[in-house]
Design goal:
Elements lengths: L2 H26 L3 H37 L1
Length: about 70
């Protein structure tokens, strides 16, 4: 194999290795925006549950005041 062919092959292998490293990084470290969106969805659902419980507590209080008033 001639020196220029060897250099071309090494360059191609280097580019392939760099591409594989980028691909591996993308798979192992997902997009931060996706992770943030998941976190926000979990927080949103937790907040909805808290508000739902608070409203249920208020309903009970209103019923008690209505029966005493």
């Amino acid at each position: 194999m001639a020196k220029t062919e060897r250099l071309e092959m090494e360059g191609a292998l280097d580019r392939l290795e760099a591409m594989l490293e980028r691909l591996e990084k993308a798979v192992v470290q997902p997009n931060p925006a996706v992770s943030e969106l998941k976190t926000l969805k979990v927080a949103h659902e937790a907040m909805r549950q808290k508000v739902g419980h608070a409203l249920a507590d208020l309903d009970v209080l209103l019923e008690e005041f209505g029966s005493h008033g």
